[in-house]
Amino acid sequence: MTQDKAEQHVIFASTILLLLFAGLTLFIASIARASIARANPGPDAAASSATYRAKCAACHGPDGGGSEVGKSMHVPDLRSQAVQKQSDAELAQIISNGKGGMPAFKDSLSEDQIHALVTHIRTLHQKK
User: Fold this and answer.
1) Which residues contact 125 (CB under 8 A, 6 or more apart)?
2) pLDDT tens for residues 69-124?
3) Which of 46, 40, 66, 39 is nearest to 120 (CA)?
4) Of 36, 39, 68, 78, whose CB has the highest number of CB atoms within 10 Å?
5) Range 47-55, long-range pairs (CB < 8 A, 24+ positions)
6) Using CA atoms, how far apart are residues 125 and 50, in angstroms rounded to an integer?
């Protein structure tokens, strides 16, 4: 009887250790995956950055602070609180329909590209 009990304890302890090892392995894998995702923003970020450079940077500058041409036309600093406090919908509407001297992009950019640009604009405040 005591031998059966000892075997049960060994099996129980082995099971607990196996579960702890599996849990720790999954935890480390999830941390590594998250770290890789942060280090490599992915093709969507690269695509929106390329769209920004092609469609926006001529006036708004590479960092959103305005190019020489843009500053002479008084374009807003995309990094500013005034721009950053606008809702995503407001920014998407401005990109789509234009505003002031800014042209509309609804005919040359897809809705997904416009929303990706809004996401890109949100990252610019960190560069100020």
Assistant:
1) 79, 84
2) 989 999 999 999 999 999 999 999 999 999 999 999 999 999 999 999 999 999 88
3) 46
4) 78
5) 47/113, 47/116, 48/113, 48/116, 48/117, 48/119, 48/120, 49/120, 51/109, 51/113, 51/116, 51/117, 51/120, 52/117, 52/120, 52/121, 55/105, 55/108, 55/109, 55/117
6) 18
